[in-house]
Amino acid sequence: MQVDPEIIRLLAFLVGVIAFAALNAAYLVWLERKEAAHIQRRIGPKEVGPFGLLQPLVDGIKLMTKQLIVPAGVDPVLFKIAPILVMVPAIMSFVTIPFSETLVARKLDLGLLVIFAFASVNVLGLLLGAWGSRNKYAVISAARVVSQNVAYEIPMLVTVVTLVMISGTMNLSEIVGLQMGGFWHWNILNLAASPLMPVAFLIFFICMLAETNRAPFDMAEAESELVAGAFTEYSGMGFGVFFMGEYANIVIGASVATILFLGGWDCPFGLFPGVHWFLIKMYFLIFTVIWIRWTFPRTTFYGLLNLSWKILIPISFVNLILTSAMLKVF
Amino acid sequence: MSALIQSQANETFVLNLGPQHPATHGVLRVKLTMDGEYIVEAEPVLGYIHRMHEKMGENRTWAQFLPNTGRMDYLHALAFNHGYVSLVERAAGLTVPERAEYLRVITSELNRVSSHLLWFGAFILDLGGFSPLLYAFDDREHILDLLESVTGSRLTYCYFRFGGVYNDIDDNFVPGARAFIKRLRERMPMYHNLVTKNIILMKRLQEVGPISAEMCRKYGATGPVCRGSGINFDVRKHEPYSIYPEMDFEVPVYEQGDSMARYMVRMDEIEQSLRIVEQALDKLPEGPVMAEKVPKILKPPKGDYYHAVETARGSFGVRAVSDGSNTPYRLKLRSPTFSNLSLFGEACRGMLLPDALALMGSLDLVIPEIDR
Amino acid sequence: MSDYLKEIISGTWSLFVGLGITIRYFFQPVVTVQYPHQTLPMTPRFRGHIELVKNEETGGTKCLVCGMCEKACPSNCITVRGEKREGVKGKVLTEYILDFTKCSLCGLCVESCTPSAITFSKDYNLAGVSKEAYIFDLKKRLEAKN
Known about the structure:
The structure holds three protein chains of three kinds. Chain A is built from ten helices and no strands. Chain A has one domain (about 5-330).
């Protein structure tokens, strides 16, 4: 029986991707706690294992041994499906992400569109979970999260459209291919295409923070003004899966930012490109995401929406028009 | 048809910000009547930590009440000590030696700085920024270590006695205090860069929670709350006591009346307190720390006495009615935060809930002091 | 229009300044002490619970059983009992009970003691599992220490 090597490759990738996502979700918690600790001049977890490296395992065991409480009166299907609806799209998006020239599950021609399509399903999962919880405050909180996500998707997509115009393709591997050869070729410094390119990177980064509900835009989880957030009725592993989905989304967001703006697997000086550079840049962006969380206070909900509609959208549209003008002229 | 319209118009619900708070204020319950996102009415419900300090005052001798004063507002316990001790000295006609007065003012102002640092950390924590809390606690540890080397306690001090203080400072206190002043002065620009000038925080605090001077007068709010609304009233300047007339310091007053103004008043007060400590350390005289002829059983003459001091939260007044015996007949404690909190009900009408929480944080509440 | 742009630029700059401060602290050493692996020395004036001072000459205590500390305590934590023994001038201390569950460490007892027979100890590791563990008999503790 001849098994198609492509299927074996895909299966290996599937296992690898799920392992990568799960390991990241677990150890990003460790990274967050350690980084927060050192910013606050204390040591984070240190008792469990050397440098506290076994702490996420122990936390995972704790979450798994907790009772999975399903409150009476919840919608059984929606309540149980919601965490999965949040986790699966994040893992699915890994299919198109090229870790290096050869390490990619599928080189889809519409790779970028696929990733953003899956990001929208994530929001749907959150809303269904809150609605299924039959809790007034969870619904209000989830409604806010939905309007936050919608508001921030617009500048993100406008910026991405700008990049697609410059690169001429939606295939992620080709977008990176156009940036090879040293950091002066990277899109963030591509001032020939548009002088506002670093600003575009900043807008994309801020939108990524808002899409993944990270501080300073974390209305959904941390602001306990309305008694609770969107996940109130979830306990034990249900909450754990939401949590893992959030960290997987951060990884996706950081990888997309790396690919679009920072040159993917390219070395800054063009010497030894490879997957290690991709991982270094991705983890640097994740480090920055965590760094921002522990520095700034939260915005109010109206401040958040004002920021998006009144500041980010005009600037990203200006960038789009400028880029198209420069592409036409030069 | 009309019933439908009526039910839509009266669509308010009651939200209970329960005694167990996610923030660090203490056991305060606020019954909020909300219309969607906006607050229609707020009613603080107090009494969850009422420990009957005023009744205890009637059953303890004058000296035995001293530890109670430290437990009311545990963040600025030395000022509460100071108020009670000054009252009894006024009643019994005791004079306090110079060195003891200077030590009282030095320790009390250091305690004020530690109280403001904790307020700063807790306020920013309410708004979602976690790191400034730990930076403030780092500085606060130095003050607590200094005061521990003098008094022996870190939080609920019982250091002042009638006629002086309990014990003298050791040799390391003056250099330690000077080193701390220098250190905090170098750290203050960091706090301003990290927090005060941050655009997110400015949007969060500016024009949020406006309190007019009229409202302050109506409810008797004192301290940084009234000074943030333009009323220039500080007990240390306007009803001076102890050695404050000899100290050269300013009283920060801001006109705007929003949360940002109250925040800036307290940050400026930290700097002014450091100035007072510096001057007092320079002028510290030698001498005894306790008056000579203090009777063991103190029996102040009959009468009605009052004394007020400026704590970190406002004007703390003690009124004692003495009937000549060794216990007070009546001891009344005027808590500054009680008056500050009473304007919350009127001030937060029509506000959004996160703005109301920012206002409550800027009022600097310590609930055990309200409930006594 | 220019106000709008100015606010955006100054706001973004303030965010970067804040980030710079926290990253500076990231690379500085920690300020915490890892208790219980490391401990700090207590200052000499630290107020632990009170203890009896050993009388160097007689080997016992300096306590005169006058009861001033009992009267001075606001919380009624102290119980002092003594007896008259023949050949010894004044009373001899038999029992000194301190109910530490009520003590507020005010120091009025230490201040009121004329022969300075009690002083603050430096004990802070006081975890226990029952209320009775905190009813100290100071005389027994003094004898156990020596």
